[in-house]
Amino acid sequence: MVNLEWYRTFKAIYKTGTLTGAADSLFISQPGVSLHLSSLEAYVGYKLFDRTGRKMMPTERGKVLFNAVSEPLSKLEDVEKNFQKSTEKLTPTISVGMCFETFQTTLEQYVSTLPFNLIISFGQYPEMLDQLDKGILDLIITPKKGVSPNIEHEAFSSEQIILVGGKNVDTNSFQKIVETKGVEHIEDWLKQEKWYGTTGDMEHLFQFWIMNFGHKPNFRPNYIVPNLNSIIRCLKGGTGLAVVPDFLCKNEIENGDLKLIWEGEKKLENTLYFGCRKKTNYQSEIEHIKGLFRKVMGKYDHVAHL
């Protein structure tokens, strides 16, 4: 099925004569414009433009298509301006991408207070960066920076990846090994314990293990649960180990429900970034969400605003 946004992009290219001009007028990335055009050309079955230098010259079939869709599309845009857009100005909709655990720990508590509509998207960081670049998302929270020139990244805090355990874990024996024996003995002790992992991203565990032991863990977690917050709730049962970002379990450690087992021989820290397009219609709404994140993350002692 054809996407109406493809026609809107086609019209913008036809009017401006360049992919860059179309991207600027639509407030989306140039790769997003290219994707819409190639999708439309694949759908109709023929080329719509000849690329001569930086200019996009419509083919004869492209001219025919423009004449066919231009007036109906303009009428549809008028309806949008007079109806949908009038309400959108009062209540805009912002699409934000982040991991599930970050949402639960930070933004979830404020959703009902937001003066605008919100769509939350969960996914892997490369996917979210791609969706931000294409205009599908307006803001992402990510520990990884993309390379698109259309996206700007703002560092706002950091997270430390730590080894935690249930309150019944024998930390005294572990600390003796840390103080008196080598890394190999530390790894042997850890592998004897019960471990929790998630069904999705295991990158925290892999990074922590590589940094401290020089290789990926050569064991599988005993218990696989849906997400990191599930791990923390399970560890409150008293036993088991897991590698998690510290801000997710700060309260549990302070309350004695969990134990901080080890920060590692070398501390593993990730910088957290706001990612957004350089050109957006929703700057004030994005700044509102950024302010909420700074408010929450400021509660954690380790956070260093950058």
Description:
This is LysR family transcriptional regulator. InterPro entries: LysR_HTH_N, LysR_subst-bd, WH-like_DNA-bd_sf, WH_DNA-bd_sf. Residues 2-59 form the HTH lysR-type domain. Belongs to the LysR transcriptional regulatory family. Keywords: DNA-binding, Transcription, Transcription regulation. With 306 residues, this protein is of the alpha/beta class. It has 3 domains: 4-85, Winged helix-like DNA-binding domain superfamily/Winged helix DNA-binding domain (Arc Repressor Mutant, subunit A, Orthogonal Bundle), CATH 1.10.10.10; 93-155 and 272-298, 3-Layer(aba) Sandwich (D-Maltodextrin-Binding Protein, domain 2); 159-269, Periplasmic binding protein-like II (D-Maltodextrin-Binding Protein, domain 2, 3-Layer(aba) Sandwich). Helix content is 46%, strand content 22%. The chain contains 12 helices and 11 strands. It has helices at 4-16, 19-26, 30-44, 60-90, 100-105, 125-133, 171-180, 183-191, 203-213, 228-235, 250-255, 283-297, and strands spanning 49-52, 55-58, 93-98, 117-122, 139-142, 151-166, 196-198, 223-225, 241-245, 258-262, 268-277. Strands 3, 4, 5, 6, 9, 10 and 11 form a 7-stranded mixed beta sheet that branches. A two-stranded antiparallel ribbon has the order 1-2. Helix 1 packs across helix 4 and helix 2 (19-26) packs across helix 3. It is elongated. The two termini are 46 Å apart. Mean pLDDT is 88; it is low at 301-306.
